[in-house]
Amino acid sequence: MQGQGAKMRVLGIDPGLRRTGWGIIAVEGPRLRHIANGVCASGEGALAARLLALHRALSAVVAQHAPQAAAVEATFVNRDPAGALKLGQARGIALLVPAAAGLPVVEYAPNAVKKAVVGVGHAAKGQVEHMVRMQLPGLDLAGPDAADALAVAICHAHHLGTAGRWLAAIRSVRA
Predict the structure, then answer these.
(1) Given the residues 28, 44, 73, 107, the one annotated as active site
(2) Closest C-alpha among 112, 105, 152 to residue 132
(3) Residue among 44, 107, 145, 148 flagged as catalytic
(4) 80 belongs to the catalytic site
(5) What is the rounded distance in angstroms from the CA atom of residue 67 to the CA atom of residue 69?
(6) 42-90 pLDDT per residue, tens
(7) What is the distance between the alpha carbons of residues 149 and 34, in angstroms, rounded to a whole number?
(8) DSSP-assigned beta bridge partners for residue 9
(9) Does the pTM of the predicted model rise above 0.85?
(10) CB of 35 within 8 A of CB of 67?
């Protein structure tokens, strides 16, 4: 972001093979405003068809809402190697779609997202959803996956604000 009043649309993505959550917020200086949120469902069937469904749905979100940056939640690797591999492929789609649209894409660990939104790195899902609703009043959520995606976008907005303050401080020292 270029200044305190700069406006930017941020796409947050919570990747999943069955349900990929997404959320778009407007960042206007220190203020955040909800634009849209939803879930891309891949349905059942062959893995390739499910990945294609996620790709098409996320591509439509990017085309419709024209974000200027994207943030993706890093996956938690569980004990099921086959499940982790499939989730990794869905995560690849979540990284590919905004990158193909020319957006800068950053990744955040789940604990970093929770800490940015709730203040605690090991917060429960309900706490994250509650704080997302507090920071984006009047929000109509499409579900827990969308809440997680909005939390990722909020996390990125906080990091953008910190980066903007650092740049301003560096510029003032150089002046």
Answers:
(1) 73
(2) 152
(3) 145
(4) no
(5) 6
(6) 988 999 999 999 999 999 999 999 999 999 999 866 678 888 888 899 9
(7) 12
(8) 26
(9) yes
(10) no
